[in-house]
Specification:
metal ion binding, four-stranded antiparallel sheet, metal-binding, alpha+beta
Length: about 190
């Protein structure tokens, strides 16, 4: 598990570099601006449920962190993403990881990248397990749109804030309420 944690963290940092470059920023921009990052992991177990239409494993939400790397159960689907107003199942693939962009990448990119609305559903026939790794900014770091992405034609969409401020606001409300970033708009 220790090796997996280290490798997933390095994968996240490589993804940060590619996202930074895609935005026209220095390759190490996102990693630097997020500060000394924490990595949280959650092992989720969803038992089989005789009436899956009556409950969710997790309600609809976006992730408050920067990046989530998910190892799905290869036998049972359960993750759904919202696309154009419809919930789409993410079918498991052998040896694949699912990458969810979180709210902090949406803010840093000034809305060019979007955090992913997703939910977990349960299955009536089989239990399911997943392992989520969350890369989280340093609590005290100031976050907001990258200065290089702000201009006359593209004003800042979000105000600056600390991750601690955002995280507290995120968990003070229901997961499936409006997008928490709406509370940080300029």
């Amino acid at each position: 598990m220790s090796t997996y944690c280290k490798e997933v963290r390095q994968l996240g940092f490589r993804l940060y570099a590619m996202i930074s470059e895609s935005l026209g920023l220095e390759q190490d921009y996102i990693k630097k601006v997020l500060g000394e990052q924490e990595q949280h992991m959650a092992v989720n177990f969803y038992p089989k449920c005789p009436s899956p239409e009556l409950t969710y494993g997790l309600p609809a939400h976006t992730d408050p962190n920067a990046l989530t790397i998910l190892m799905m159960d290869e036998q049972v689907a359960g993750l759904q993403v919202l696309k154009e107003g419809r919930w789409i199942a993410v079918n498991p693939r052998p040896n694949a990881l699912v990458i969810n962009l979180g709210d902090q990448l949406q803010a840093l990119s000034n809305g060019r990248y979007k955090s992913v609305w997703h939910r977990a559903v349960v299955n009536s026939d089989r239990p399911r397990m997943s392992i989520a790794s969350f890369l989280c900014p340093c609590n005290s770091v100031k976050l907001g749109p990258a200065e290089k992405l702000i201009g006359e034609k593209s004003p800042a969409v979000y105000r600056n804030y600390t991750y601690d401020e955002y995280y507290k606001k995120f968990w003070s409300r229901n997961l499936d309420q409006e997008h928490c970033l709406e509370l940080f708009r300029t």
